[in-house]
Amino acid sequence: MPSSPESETKIAPDEQDQEQQTDDGRASELDNLRHENARLEDRYKRALADLDNYRKRTARDLERRVDESRDAVIRDWLDVVDSIDRALRVEPGNPVAEGLRQVLEQMEAILARQGVKRTGGTGERFDPERHEAVGIHQTDEVPDQTIVDVARSGYTSGDRVIRPAEVIVARNDGSGE
């Protein structure tokens, strides 16, 4: 028998209010969960960014420390190179001088393979970033601020100065330029 509209179950007004409150409660709970999810996702993204920054920072620190250690070892080698250089200047005709020249060439080849270059040659323009002036020579024969003598060679590796060159710089009144 077909059901008549009167025979359908009718929901009492109290039950309708209860269902509405349940739907409102679920919607509110869903909103709370969405908000919490967004908050946790934001924290997750920030943690990932912090981790990425930490990795980059530690990589830079490690590279800097390796460079500093490498430069310290190279500076120790440079003391030996300087000693051999001085020995060759004192007695260039000494029979031992040829052997010392060969040792010096070998050491300079090792430094070159490590990317280390000698700086501060005579005739270069004085650069306070790469040179240390240890003396001034009054002359009009070369332009002002030109290196006229090298007391101790300097060395660079890439754009880093491992040791500045100790140089004597020309000073003049400008008529030599």
What does this structure look like?
The chain is α+β, with helices and mostly antiparallel strands. It folds into two domains: 98 residues; 61 residues, Nucleotide Exchange Factor Grpe, Chain A, domain 2. Helices cover 54% and strands 19% of the residues. The strands form two sheets. The chain has a three-stranded antiparallel sheet with strand order 1-4-5. Strands 2-6-3 form a three-stranded mixed sheet, with no helix packed on it. A hairpin with a 2-residue loop joins strand 4 and strand 5. Helix 1 runs antiparallel to helix 2. The protein is elongated and about 115 Å long. The termini are far apart. 8% of the residues are buried. The model has no long low-confidence stretch (mean pLDDT 86).
SSE layout and pairing:
Elements: H1 13-90, H2 97-113, E1 116-119, E2 131-138, E3 147-152, E4 154-157, E5 160-163, E6 165-171
Parallel strand pairs: 2-6
Antiparallel strand pairs: 1-4, 3-6, 4-5
What is the mean pLDDT?
A: 86
Major sheet description: 3 strands, antiparallel
- For the largest sheet, list the strands in their spatial order: 1-4-5
Supply the number of helical segments.
2
**Poorly predicted runs of 5 or more residues:** none
Into which percentage range does the β-strand content fall?
15-25%
> Could you spell the SSE succession in H and E letters?
HHEEEEEE
